[in-house]
Each structure stands twice: as C-alpha cells, then as structure tokens.
Amino acid sequence: MVSKSPASVSARGLTYAYPGSIEPVLQNVVFQAYPGERVALMGPSGCGKTTLLRLLEGSLEATTGAIQITGQAVLVYQDLRLVEEDTALNNVCLGALGEQPAWSGLLGFSPEIRSRGLDLLRDVGLEEHAGIRISELSGGQKQRVALARALMVRPDVLLADEPFANLDRTTAQKIGELLISLQAKHGFSLVCSSHDLQAVPGFFTRVEEVCRLTCVVCPTGQWTPPRAAKPRPWSKAVGVAILVAFLLSCVAVFRDAPPVAEAWREGARFLTGLAPWPLSKYADVPWGSLLTALLATLQMALVGTILGALVSFPLSVVAALPGRQGWGVRLARGVCNVIRAVPSILWALVFVAIFGVGPAAGVAALAAYSVGYLTRMFTEEFENADPRPARALIQLGANRLQALVRGIVRPSLPGVIGAGFFVFEYNVRSASVLGIVGAGGIGTELAYYVEWRQFPELTVGLTLIVLVACLLDSGSRALRQKLVIAKGR
C-alpha cells in the first residue's frame, strides 16, 4: 500500500529558465512523490520533463522555489551515461565512488564494494555478464547495468528519464517488472518521465501531466525556420592576402639562390655519389659502427618519449579536470606552448651546451619536445572524450578527480597509447638529425659522411634510417588501428 506521509520528494514554487532564455521552462511547479509510489511525468517533448528530473536530482539549480528530499535522489539518464570501455561490474561499482576517500577507486575497488556490485547485477539478472564490456551488451542489458549502478548509491528516490523509450514492448515490460521487484527490495520511490505509457500499462501508480504542474504553456510544435546564412565578403580578401604573402615570400626566399642549372648539376653530382653501384664500394663500410649508432638512436627516442610521457600524463590529467580553469592550468598550458614552439634541434643545442656532446643531450632534447606535444595530445584526447559518464559519476557522489580518471582517462587510454607511439615514431626521425649538432645517435655519423663525401657509408646510413622508419610506420599504423577498434568495441 502506498504511504502518503511523509513525501520522499517535494517541490514547491519551482521555477527554472535556462541561461540566455527569456521564458522559463518550468514555472511555479508543485510536485510530490511518496514512498512506494511509481509516478509518471507525462508530456510532449520540450515541456520540461527532463528539466524537472534534473532539478530534483540536483544537477540543475532552480531559479526560485524549494525542493525537499528524504535521503538521496539519483537520476538514470535516457542515454544511460555508462563507461562503454569498462566492464558491467566496474560500471556498477562506480556508483560507490562517493563512499570512498578522494584517492580511492581510481584503480580498483574493495572486495566489499565488488561484492555489493555483484549482488546488484544478480538482482537485475546480469551476474554472468559482470566481466563483459558495456559496448558488447544490448540496449536492455545496458539499461539494467545503469539501474544497478544507481542502486549502488542506496537512493531513497530513483529518477529515470524515459526508461521505456527505444525498447520493444516485450523488453519494456521486462524492465517494468524488474523495477517493481527492485522497488520492493530496496524501498525507493520511483519517478519517471515518459511520453507514451502504452508499452507498460498499469505500471505507474500515478500519472502527472507536467504542463498541469506549471503555468507555462505546453509547446505547440510550431517550427521556426533558421535564418539564412549571410555571405562573408571578408573570405575573398583573406584568400587574396594569403596569395600575395606567398608570392612575396617566394621572392624573398629565392632572391640569393644559385642559378637553377648550377643547382641541378650539384644535385645530380651528389645523387650520383649515392648510387648503389658498384657493390664493391660497400666492402669497407663500417657496418658495426652504423648499427651501433642506429641502436643508440632508437634508445634515445624510446627514453626521451617515455620521460616526456611521464611528465605529460599528470599535466594532462590536471588540465582536463572538470571545472578547473585556474591560473595553474593556464600556466601549465602556456609552458607547454612555449616548449612546443622550440624545434627539437634547438633543444638539442641547448642541452649540448649543458651536458656536452653525446646521447644524454639528445635524450633531454627529445624529452622536452615530447612534453610539449604529448601534453597537448593527451589533453585533447581527454577533452574529446564523452563527458557525460564523468558528469553522471559526479552526480552519483564521486569527486572531480575520481570522475575524470574513471569516466574519461581510463576510456581514453587506447588513444593515449596511440599518441605516445606516434610521438615515439616521430622522435626516431628527430633523433636521426640531432646528431648533426652533437646530440648523439646516427646523425653524428651521417654529418661526418656528408662533410667528407663518404657516399657508400652515407648511402648505407640513410637506407638503415628509411628501413627503420618504414617498419615503425607499419607497426604504428597497425597498433593505432587495433587501439581504435578496441576503443570502439
């Protein structure tokens, strides 16, 4: 029997207008839901059903009015906002982040929390799917995981935005039966938005028309055509300016260049020296010295990339924290912009002056250069991730760091690894050049061979670099494709 006192959730005089909007979406709303009730908020699209749920949840703050909730209210969004790249059990356990210290839950969960999560998966009939990724579940199964995650918070009021939308009648009835059994076991009040009750007849104990809760007139469905795009006369001027700048730059650059015929003759002479015939001229090539220098180049690129990643990753996490745009974040991004603006060969000159000639200077130069680019690439990977799961975790009680790590950083790891491998591939090419200024690697050998016109040795060195670059390019492409597939599964 439905109890009528006290109300689990009560709203009086509730008014809300979105920023920049003249008319409020909801105005002077009066609403109550009591323990054991299953209330449907009915109305056409745009009448404020989801807005009212978000106000009751607390993710939106009412312009005027008051909301009283006995205990805690949790909203299951229509898009569910699950972490697609994580397992069903981990997604359910994410609902308990608010119970743990700020640092806890970043990498794993306690046995007690995992046991609770398994119990809830058993309640929704998905215990056997605990280790399966969300992206591999059906729509109905995902909805059950979202319900289990919400129940990890132990809510007194469960809010659900269109829980039966996009489900066939049979699946909708099964979800309805599941909600009834979960309500009987966990004792929450249920408030759902819906625009059609035909799929679950008799499920709700009370139906409220949102437009009757407020004095705002329901939307009429009238469509306002978009404004025609205005022509942009400045676009042609920009194109002309770029063309003029290009022509003037060509004149300045090639003003003191040697005659074309002379340049062609010198180029032909140099390329003839690189020709791979006769083969007898390679008999005296110092293969051991070249292979050792090539190995040093790969080692420089590997160490420089890893050191750069170790610095870049925490900087990127801090820069991507939701709601954090303070002076520390701006300073970090400014420093990375400065680092990125300096070419790696100039960094090599700086570190040769500090460490002296040798691979240590090359490693430091590649690490510094990697910090600039990896920080930007990691941050963009985090910023391009779907922010909705992280926002949902914050509403479930997680702090910003927990929400960022579990909702954005971990799902973005395939892209982060791919970016790191791309920079490593780039650093191998850069390390081949840094030796020209004394920063170690095969570039030191190549600079000597060019200066003294030792063409057989130069040909072998360049061939080795090309072969390594091709192998790395193929491996990098294959790895990134696998990572993209893994991220999208």
Sum this structure up briefly:
With 489 residues, the protein is of the alpha/beta class.
Q: Count of DSSP helices?
A: 17
What shape does the CA trace take?
elongated
Q: Separation of termini?
A: 45 Å
**Low-confidence segments:** 215-226
CATH topology of the largest domain: the name is MetI-like fold
CATH architecture of the largest domain: Orthogonal Bundle
Please, could you describe this protein's structure?
With 489 residues, this protein is an alpha/beta fold. It has two domains: 9-213, Rossmann fold (3-Layer(aba) Sandwich), CATH 3.40.50.300; 282-488, MetI-like fold, CATH 1.10.3720. 55% of the residues lie in helices and 9% in strands. It contains 17 helices and eight strands. The protein has helices spanning 49-57, 88-93, 111-123, 139-151, 169-186, 210-213, 234-253, 260-274, 287-319, 327-341, 344-355, 359-384, 388-395, 400-409, 413-434, 442-451, 455-488; strands at residues 9-16, 26-33, 38-42, 64-69, 73-76, 157-161, 189-194, 206-209. A five-stranded parallel β-sheet has the order 5-6-7-3-8, sandwiched between helices. It has a three-stranded antiparallel β-sheet with strand order 2-1-4. Helix 11 packs across helix 12 (359-384). Mean pLDDT is 84; it is low at 215-226.
